[in-house]
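thread from #wetlab-drylab

HS: before we spend reagent money on co-crystallization trials with calcium ion, can we at least see a predicted complex? here's what I'd submit
DV: go for it
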Amino acid sequence: MPLLPRLSLVCCLFVFVSFAAGKGRPNILFIMSDDHANAAVSAYDDTLIQTPNIDRLANEGMLFSRAFCTNSICGPARAVTLTGKYSHLNGFIVNESTSFDGGQQTYPKLLQAAGYETAVIGKWHLGSDPTGFDFWKILIGQGQYYDAPFLTAEGQVETEGYVTDVITDLAIDWLNTREDEKPFMLMYQHKAPHANFQPGPDYLNWREDETIPEPETLFDDYATRSPAAWDNEMRIDPTLELQYQGELNLKVPDGLRGHERSRWLYQFYIKNYLRCVKSVDDGVGRVFEQLEAMGELDNTIVIYTSDQGFFLGEHGYYDKRFMYEESLQIPLLVRYPKMIEAGSVRDEIVTNLDFAETMLDLAGVKVPSGMQGESLVPLLKGKKRKGWRDAMYYHFYEYPGYHYVKRHYGIRTERYKLIRFYHDIEAWELYDLDEDPQELNNLYGSDGYEKLTKRLKKRLDKIQSNFGDSPELADELVERYPHGSMPRWGRYQDFPWRD
Ligand code: CA
């Protein structure tokens, strides 16, 4: 054989072998917990808990200080992540009464087609079987904390033990037994710290004798706010108690009234929540150790996030749903030393809409048109990104539904937030986040804010239509997904004796 063709054959072989071996293409470990508030990640705020393993991503990588979800509810947030599209376009707008259309384009499918070995282990919660995965082992619906059954392509399998530890074991097993000629993309997704906040066996009484600091807004009186802020079932006192009475050994001591009762319920709630977080942090540490033992840690982009945020007693609330900061914000930490400077922080507005495009970009896969986010790769590389978005759009639909938070949409800019609650209410809220980061002072309708309100409404109209949404579509989706007939646990206003 002449020299030139022989050389090119060798070259071709070399290219093929390195491509197949995934040389140059990073592994992706996408860690998503469920309902993990930024306030319970010590890289963001160490008042409540230390999470050293999760913090390692921030210390050795990048922390995003303004990461948000576009619809703060479990399944829908996951559908946004998979598709890079808003809920009204991916079709999964509320948890119940719809299931995710797995026939549509998702980033795991595109990564799989590009030669990645793909897997999802743990919480899925999309109502239909996963598509685009070489391996999947998922909880059934919400799953349960102890002895949870899992679904696989071959059917249901039983497991024993605490679900956070089980999901971690399964992820480690998969990493140990996978084919290693391909790069991998593993979605390692926890149920914790989602309700009903059952701690693991090692942490049943963890910090029992401590008094955990209370949020400043625990006794929010909702003055200046729209009725949406109080006409719901979001309060630790009384709703959490009514929801979980008979579970978790929840028994308020006799004789506690008013604020003392709320304080007791807060301690009960926050301790169980933090115990669940503690096991998640342990699990992240064990998976790190596994990657280190395999020599793959620095070849792996590790992302830590949550499907949405969560209230930890702020405004008297638990749960999520609202466009208020605690529920809107998500933790987002990324470690990949080949690209990211250790200990770096970005304060650009990013959303869970960006995850799909970011992972495709990191893997060198072309981003298809139709995805609505932006790749975060330029930000990860530490580049100044002129023209980056300075606002995000939010839309929540699940009403009537658990917790009875009214349907609403809105815009959050770097400084302001404008929200419209609609359907069985017509109300607006406007916040100046620089002056009022806790969102206690609704400025909508206040003197002197007319021009700002007009300007923000215009921006809201524009961003809404840019994403293919509209007030008319919102009304249409009320008809199409009326939801409803959820159990009522009890409203704040039904228990006036408590305060
Ligand atoms: Ca969730």
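DV: The radius of gyration is 23 Å.
HS: ok that's useful, forwarding to the group
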